[in-house]
Structures are given as C-alpha cells and as structure tokens.
Amino acid sequence: MQKKFKISVLIPCYNEENTISQVIIKVETAIKKLDLDYEIIVVDDKSTDKSLEIITEHKDQNRVKLFSHETNKGKGAAIATGLKSVKGELVLIQDADLEYDPEDYQKLLLPFYETDADVVYGSRFLGGGKYVRIHFFWHYLANKILTFLCNLMTNLNLTDMETGYKLFKTEKIKDIEIKEKSFGFEPEITIKLSKKKLKFFEVPVTYNGRNYNEGKKIGLKDAFIAVYCIFKYSFKS
After folding, report:
1. What are phi and psi of 170, to 5 degrees?
2. Buried b (16+ CB within 10 A) or exposed e, 194-211
3. How much is the pTM?
4. Helix/strand/coil for 60
5. Is 12 exposed, middle or buried (0-12, 13-18, 19+ CB in 10 A)?
6. pLDDT tens by residue, 108-146
7. 83, 183, 212, 216: least CB-packed within 10 angstroms?
8. Are the CB atoms for 86 and 171 separated by under 8 Å?
9. What pLDDT, in 10s, does the model give residues 173-223?
10. Which range of residues forms the domain containing residue 21?
C-alpha cells in the first residue's frame, strides 16, 4: 500500500491578481486527485494589487491559510514566514503565477514513495514534461551558468537549480535558517541542503514561462545576487 503523506503547499505571492485564484484552485484539484491530506499556505508579500483580497476569498482555516507581510520583503522572506506554520510531512514551493503546473505533483512525489527521497526538484530541462515554453536565450544561459556554479560548489549534478518547484521532507528544511529575502533563496537553500548530505532527485516538469509584459519579476540583477550567494553559502560553515 502506498504511503500517504500530508503535503503542505507553500505559495509566496506578490502582485499576482491575475493568476493567484487559478493557482489555488489548480493546487487543490491536483492534490485531491492524489487523495492526500493537505494544507495550502499563502504568504502575501505586501501586494499592491488585489492579490490579498482574492486570497482572502479562498481562505479556509483547515485547508487554505493566509499570512501577510506589512512590508514587501521578497520571495525568500515569504517562504521563511510560511515554513514556520507548516504541518505536513512534505512541503512544496509553488509559485503564484501559472508558469508551473500542479498536475506535475504526481511526478514530484514519486521519489518519496519509491526511494525515500529527501529533496526533489522539478527540472525544466530534463525533457518529459508536457511542454516547455521556448523563451529568452539569456535567461536560459544564466540559469545554466548558475546551476553549473552551484554544482561545482556542492558536487551535485542538478540540471535546474533555479527551478520554482522544490519539494522537501519538512524535517530536513525546518532547521535551516533562511537568510536570503529575495531570489537568492534558491542557491542558498540548495547549498545548505547539500551540506546535510541528503538524497536529491530531479523529475521533468512542464513550464509555461512568462515574459516581462506578462508579469515576470526575476531579472539580471537577481542573477548577480545568485552568483554572490553561491559563493557566500558554499564557504560559510
């Protein structure tokens, strides 16, 4: 009999009024198909649009929980806030846009069922997802460089360190103090988890990336911050 986990889906949100409602609905639909106990934790990072109002309409004390920041702090800070309240054995990070498809949850969970994984990343570059939207070459190149540098420092062999789909055993991430408030969270958490000698897995996922007109937020500055974080946390004990 397949083990049943309770999964906590953590959604950091900043100015995603056009997608946040659909994301919450898609997350719930995907988890119910898998017949899992679950909670959805949404952290609004001081949105200036109607995101908070929309999330409030979905709020449910048992299933959909809402936390909000009084000032805009960044994705890493929102994740740190959400992690304090996680009750599931597994915690999954889900972006508040529609770039990643919750229908991939089954693939993300498979290594936990079959291999007792500690960490699973959803890779946009492995192949095997329904589709991957062709997008900016320079974003792709920056991602590959950052992943290469992270692999070099951690001795991992990831294909997509910057992926928005990261799934962890809660016990493995709860004792990690997240310092980075923005997108520097991605290399920070990868490096800190690698130092714990955990079992990492990657699975292919679908990706429908946005452009800047559609609301994409990460930029060149974040790539330089990520490089800094890779070296900072690699050499920091």
Report:
1. -60, -40
2. beeeeebbbbbbbbbbee
3. 0.91
4. strand
5. buried
6. 999 999 999 999 999 999 887 776 666 678 788 888 999
7. 212
8. no
9. 988 999 999 889 999 999 999 999 999 999 999 998 766 555 566 667 888
10. 6-235
